[in-house]
Every structure is written in C-alpha cells, then in structure tokens.
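go over my protein:
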Amino acid sequence: MENDTYKTLASSSEETLYKEKNSKFFGLAFPITSEDDVKPILEDLKKRHHSARHWCYAFQLGTDTIYYRANDDGEPNNSAGMPIYGQIQSFGVTNVLVVVVRYFGGVKLGVGGLISAYKISAQMALEASDIVERTLDIHYTLKFGYQNMNKVMRVIKEKNLDIISQKMEMDCEIIISTRKKNAPIVLEAFSNLYEIVIKEIV
C-alpha cells in the first residue's frame, strides 16, 4: 500500500542557539511550498543577522519526487549544507527549509567540528519545530446536471469527501478532494453514475 501521508512543519521554528569554541550557530526551520520561498527567507535572515559570517542551508520539496538542495555558503565543501540536509532526512520531513546562521568566534573548528556543529544546530531547529502529518490529496472535478445533484451529494456524504468549491450555473461543477489511497474508490463510485463526468485535476 503506498503511503499517502507526509510530515512537514506546521509553522516556522523558534530560533535555536548552539555554541562551539566561541562560534555561535543559530538554527531555524521553515515550512516552504516551492524553491521561490527560499530566497526571501534568506534575505530576511541576512538582515536580522547582518554581522554573521555564513548562512548555510538545505531544503527538501516534494513527496513522490524529491527535490533538494544543500548550500555550504562559503564553508568547506559538504561541511554545512549536507549535514543540515542529513537532519531533514532523519526527521523524515519534506517541504522544509533549515538554515543555520554562523557567527565566527575566532577559533577554527576544522571540517569535523563544522560538520558536527551544523548537524547539531539543524537537529535543534527541527526539534524546536511543530512537525505535523499531512495527507496527500487528489482533487476531482465533477460535472453534472441539476437532476443528478442528490446522487452526487449522497456519494460525497457516504465517502466523506471534502468539497473544495462549487459552481452552479447552467450545469453544476463541484471540486472534491480525497486522500490518495481512497481515490480509486471515489473515481469508481462516480464513474458508475450515469450522466456525471469526473476528471482528476493534475
């Protein structure tokens, strides 16, 4: 049975602080819906932490097809972005951006020290986050004449479907939503009804 739920953040996390040899690492986690969300968040953090040295981050988007990016922002290769991304994976969350802002404290940490500090900082940010489980939903458009309204409404009620929108003009058009795993049953229920057109919205 394919999984039709995923975990993401309900809202942005509180800022966490991790200190290592005078360097300060501020960790933050944000829910995002597309890569376009990343830049404004980073710009805002750069204003807030304008005297920091590095703003390293990683994000992951998607449920079936995963898209991710990790950015070391001037730290040694793979010493920041990938350790942050590793925490996103171990928490099993998606549609999420984790940023770690570093203030350099004058003492070099070495690559091992950096990997560990960025990892712990990302972990703290995710632990401070409100992680929620969401369902993967499929939306369908139903088109039918008024004479079929009762039939349609009966199925919607029986199958406990959410109505996203309805348009009642010459004909009726209702957009419904159902969990991915229930989609085949819903499709079948409406396809069996005469004079009702059901189409998946992709």
Summary: The first helix runs from residue 38 to 48. Helices lie at 38-48, 81-91, 110-127, 149-158, 183-191. Residues 5-133 form a domain with the Ribosomal Protein S5; domain 2 fold (CATH 3.30.230.30).
